[in-house]
Amino acid sequence: MGQQGIEEGRGAFVEGAWYIIANARAVGKRPVTVERFGTRIVLFRDGRGALVAARARCPHRGADLGLGRVVDGAIECPYHGFRFSADGRCVAMPCEGRAAVAGGAGAALALTRFEVREHRGLVWLWWGDRPGEGAADRRGEGAAELPPVPWFDGLPPDERHAHTACMEWDVPFARAMEGMLDLHHLPFAHRPWVFGVGAQLDPYDVRVEGDVLHAEGVLRKDDGEPWDGRGGWKFAMEVRFPGVIRLSLGGYTMGVAGCAPIDAGRTLIVGRYYMPVPVIGRALAWLGLWLEFRLIQPGDQRMLESTEPRDPDLGGARCVRADAGILAWHKMRRARLKEQRAEAGRRLPLVEA
């Protein structure tokens, strides 16, 4: 599937979930347009500083609202000056005059808005209908509230000793998630930068609890003996389906990553390192993430971009025990997509104005 809008792309991505779509620091006084899920989304802050997400296409003539500005908490189109409040209403039509707006002329120009939250310095977007929305509509009832933004126990309570950065991969979302869940590539794909890490993944345990995937294991040298409980490179991974990941490496470094589809063939990677060290923790987190994005992740990106076929085809792959985390994630994805296909009359993932 090519770069399509949400109307054409419905069902192509896992719905009914929160995705990390940007670093909150990227959204300041001026609006910002990003492409996610095959559509252009404008992010801006209202008069209270709260985040707003809407389709970037101006309802008037299609200009990119991200090129405009925010005036008194409303986003102003750069082309003709039409303004839209945080609830999506058109509140100014300069060419028609104030009387026209007061008379309801702008009612047909409401923005298509999306559910968005700002949490822990990240921008989270809900992709899909509210839980039970389709069935509730058929019964004439209101849909359920959205679930809370997912987060992880055991992380520092704030971001004082953290650093966040973003990059884009020219690979489909499912391929990117395979890369995130793959640990046994480490001593080979990153041979120049990772020293002393064994190639045998043993022990390795994967379990799924609802929408949470847990994977724990040890990469160690193959000595022909059972693991003694001490040696090797330990890791623990927790995935909040479909694409929010917590990773602990060696029992010390703690990181969070979020993957979100840009379109059917590209994926946004948001990475964060935590280094809970007094005074220099933030600097260490910045250095660690800089090295990660400069040295480690390009290797993953190169491997995934060269993998055939471009979209995952588990039927053509010969997976082994060490791929259990990847297989478990794909099983969750297949089940969710099957549910989506079974739902008829799905609506756009928007907030009514």
UniProtKB/TrEMBL annotation:
- The superkingdom listed in its UniProt entry is Bacteria
**Coiled coil residues, start to end:** none
Xref: InterPro entries: Cholesterol_7-desaturase, Rieske_2Fe-2S, Rieske_2Fe-2S_sf
Keyword NADP annotated = no
| Keywords of this entry | 2Fe-2S, Iron, Iron-sulfur, Metal-binding, Oxidoreductase
Where would I find the Rieske domain in this sequence?
A: 18-125
Q: Which Pfam families match?
A: Rieske
List the GO molecular function terms: 2 iron, 2 sulfur cluster binding; metal ion binding; oxidoreductase activity
Name used for this protein in its record? (2Fe-2S)-binding protein
User: What is the taxonomic lineage of the source species?
Assistant: Bacteria, Pseudomonadati, Myxococcota, Polyangia, Polyangiales
